[in-house]
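check this:
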Amino acid sequence: MKINVEGVSEIVIEIKSMERAIDFWSNQLGFSIVEQWGYKEGQFDKSNENRWATWLYLGGPARLGLWLPRNFTEKELLEKRKPVSEWEGLFDEGGSHVHFALFIRQDNFDSAITVLENAGIEMKLIEGKNDSNKERRLYFKDTEENIVEFYTLDIKSDYISRLQNGEIK
């Protein structure tokens, strides 16, 4: 590996309703709110007026950002198209995301299922084997139609094993 990354730091998803997303992620799933921002004059604003972004602690080194869509002016869109090194502001809003996965240890997986069941959240459970390990994945949608996966594969251990077995360089 060329860059020594310890794990995911932030995941940001676009939402349609801040209240609905907070209710789902914090009240129903139990992730704590750690910070909230406003949005003013095309940039983030820490004053908390017009709450536009909410950060939730996911565990370990990771947090989840719930962001409302940004309405860029024509001038901001032109600026956003420039190379990042030439930006005068911060335009860190990308394109569509496919899904994201959160690592959950096997011994905590059933309790995660219970939380989702108790909240009435529809889900799809997939169980299989990866070499000698039982692997479990659970997919569901949040209130904003983002696809979320809970996954029991320890990516770091899997990476090290594949590296030692010569499967990857």
